[in-house]
Write the structure tokens for this entry.
Amino acid sequence: MSLPVYATPLQRIWHVAFRVLCGLIFFFLVAPILIIIPLSFNAQDFFTFTPEMLRLDPAGFSLKHYDDFFNNPDWRLPLLNSLAIAPVAMLISVGLGTLAAIGLSQSHVPFKGAIMAILISPMIVPLVISAAGMYFFYSRIGLQGTYWGVVLAHAALGTPFVIITVTATLVGFDQSLTRAAASLGAGPLRTFFKVQMPLILPGVVAGGLFAFITSFDEVVVVIFLGAPGDKTLPWQMFTGLREQISPTILAAATVLVTVSALLLITLEILRRRSERLRGLSPN
Amino acid sequence: MLTADGVPLRRSLNRALRRQKLRAMLLIAPLLVFVLITFLAPIGDMLFRSVENQIVSNTLPRTVASLSDWDLASETPPDETVFRALAHDLVIATELKTHTRLGSRLNYEASGMSSLLRSTGRDVEDFGEDLSASLADLDPVWAEPVTWADLLGDPAWRAEHESWAATGQRSGAPAFQPSATALTALPRTTEIYGAFARITQEVNGRNLMRQDPWHLVAITLIEEIKADPAAAQAFAGEHAARLAAIAGADLAQADFTAAFADSNDRWITPTPWSVIALYAAPYTPGYFLNAVDLGKTPEGIAPRPADEQVYIMLFMRTLWLSLTITALCLLLGYPVAWLLANLPARQANLLMILVLLPFWTSLLVRTSAWKVLLQRQGVINDVLVWIGLIGDDARLVMINNQLGTVIAMTHILLPFMILPLYSVMKTIPPTYMRAAKSLGANDWSAFWRVYFPQSVPGIAAGCILVFILAIGYYITPELMGGARGVFISNRIAYHIGTSLNWGLAAALGTILLIVVLVLYWVYDRFVGVNNVKLG
Amino acid sequence: MKIKTLLGATALATLPLSAGVAFAQDLPACENCADSMVLMSWGGAYQASQVAAYAEPYTALTGVTITWDEGSNEAVAKMRAASEAGNMTFDLVDVEGPDAQRACDEGLAVEVDFDAVLAPGTDGSSPTDDFGASGSIINDCFVPQIVFSTTFGYRTDVAAWNGKTPDSLCAVFDLENFPGMRALEGRPKKNLEWALLCDGVAKDDLYDVLSSDGGVDRALAKLDTIRDSVVWWSAGAETPQLLADGEVVMGSTYNGRLFSAIEEQKQPIAMLWDWQVFDYDGWVVPAGLDEARMNRVMHFLHFATDTQRLADQAKYISYGPARGSSQPLVSTHATLGIEMAPHMPTNPANQKNYLVNNIEWWADNQDEVEAVFQNWLAR
């Protein structure tokens, strides 16, 4: 990518201009997310940098919005609700999704294309349509306005991610390994846990993280399906944004950005591990 | 050929294949069933609701039946029979308070139906008041609720009811049973009284012997006796004499047409009747017509009044804004993807984090950030004022309009453009460009004629993906768009949550779903679902 | 949040725990009652006043868990949806008069027998007489709490106004003298009346004009003149926030919200009382509750609408209590110590020009007008 020594001045200018342009686009991508972090430590109830903050005067900063976020029931309960919903939805997604992905990766699956399309559909259909349909249908079967209604809906929305990530790890999976295990006397369950599981684990975990974040960030479906007592963090943020944007939202946002960053790092580590494992496999 | 156990090889292989298929299906089945129930059934329910219309025929069964003889193109309202049928239906509907819902339903089709049904719903129980009063004048026993129960009820039920009343309990009254005599001699009166009794006992939980029957019961009785005085003979004792007295008395005819006209003169125009007749069927294309600004009229399908035509405009706006956002994403995403694909792996991985962080950050976090940044008193305006680009009193309005929606959504969807572009560009060997240049192409034509064509699959994938995601967006337009920056999804949510026009919401949703599925099919052809990469 | 935090803090600081014990004897035990309730209200300063005046004292006395849902601006839709869904997720719903009428008409709310359920006035009057004295009994389903008004507030520091201050409602429609963004509710109610008043319609003719052909269009045409300068709000807390942030220069909202912004937060905002629209706000009990929940709700209603509780609420927000016997007990603000009477919408100085919501007209015509208005808004 470095410029050859024989580049013309015009090429040099373009080279620099292009890098500046890309820098600006990266700035556009990241700045809005990063700028809320210092703003969330504002000692005032404003959404802009106060003169004290610009002078880096400690008096301009405070943790009061975090205090509000963790101690005010308006925020604490939604946080707890989100933590009660997302892991359960994730477990359902991962359990059912991993099994199905293994099933789909077998060599002879009838109607594979159609089944794949159906299983992926929750990711494709616009959320507002899924939410509308679930609202209508869950009302009929008494799930609307219940904890389990939200969990099942979120689990359904999360499964496509599990399917995709687990299928991706299985693409490179050498089926002769299971046959080898079987020929050495291992039962199907033992084969699964000892041979297949370690290899697809990164995909399962990555899919699980996607499923978790799908539920943890989801707001449209929960607004339609949730009862007031099941208000989640994104729902509370949405209400807050619509009615009065309080600096506590920025504290909440900062916490969520941290969570996202941690998830991102975990995924990156997993990806590398997976690549390393694949590198060792006979393929 | 036989296997070691002596089974033909073909059969053995077939069995193994069947086994394998079965095992695959058993692994897939739990999720398939789960998705069918929790996701596809809801979508199916939505499709069903977009055509379902049973409320009209359920609420006004008699009116709908009697309206079938009325000519839709007629300039005059239907005859007295239909008015009477409507009075009958409405008396029941107002007792059950379903007339307001019917009004809301019909109001979706013709403005004014809701207030018409609500206001007449308040009057309808008084229709025919003078007739039932004149019956009481003729013989005061008709003003006693018990008279009606004795006349029309089964004697065994009456006895049972008496013994229940003697216990002094407030609930658990035996339900009204008509007598065989009443059913044959006075069928219509008995039917209406039966409806009255059911509502009084089951819905309102009142004692039938203390509630005055509807005037409609008295009116029907008078008519039946007048039409067939012999019916009185079927009854025993004092009932026969009382009914005979009615047959001989000089009582006025009920006039429901006049009563309805008196309540609201719109009833003597054909309009409300044609609305009921047009939307009487239990399944209707009406919601879909409404979703594309059309409506049913007696003359056929026609455009809606100009001030009700919003949906085509909203669909166009949704498409237009989504296209704008897609184009902006491509414009911003292409250089970045190119840079990432052509940098050494270590640097590219680092920069990739700048793309993945927003990708992984909650949608609401990013929307909040933009709301904070774009406010009149927000960071961007502050910076612009500070560097002197704009005056303090001329701060830019960047939220609650289309600009806000476009900026925020471009930011939110940009990673979805960069990632597919990057994965395609990664596969383009840099040697091609070098080869082109060595053959004499300048930088631009080497890029445009050699590199760009090879990146087109990535452009297609990214654009379709961003476009599919954009046209279904709800949260960001809702928070950033104000009145004019909202999408069709916001209208769907409005009809579900606020106006409760679920049929129209379902029809709009179905149309949007079809658009998305077509695009998804295109995407599948271009890219393949299995090639979707995450992160 | 500014408003909310402040009130939340004051509410906690001033909650008279000892007083709570004092009326424990008066509160009859609740038999076969649910131990939690979901109340739907309006959020913000108003909900905070309800929490402080009766929800927290009730929880202190009974241990009942109360969950709040801030959905009252779409109360009827939510109740209808929950009823169609067959799962009534709310136990008690706070609505304004016209919505109560609609909920009652549609069978979504149950009738409440005032004299059997509610507490008699401290002056010995029956609940029917006591509420009747303030004219707040609208229908059989509605248990009134307060009389409030919807009115305008404006910023007092707008440079572009050259020292002029709005003194009439029609300043809202006067972009020449009073430039800047306005906040209006994204619903037709009140906006149409105000538009017609400023289009030269007399107060007494308002609903005749609105009922006539082209009446609604005339109001919308008037609103069209300022449309590009309007931010449409959906929750009462938005306008004070938008005013405080300087996002708008004037806006309509409930008078109590403006009181909080002006008196408690000391924001540079002033009230424009001209053509305030009076309305009652109160509870309706949704249909479809089981017996235990119904018992709990009735028990709560008895407590929460008694003379003292309604008078207490006026310590936190400038709304008039809906009981005759509560009115003499209205005193000073819980923390600021200022007299509340001059801030009440019913104070004679504030009601030179006023409207009373025509509940029947709105109950009948809401569906039509709402549809027309939303279509107008979308274009």
Remarks:
- The longest helix of chain B spans residues 9-49.
- Chain B touches chain A through 90 residues (CB under 8 Å).
- Chain B has a mean pLDDT of 90.
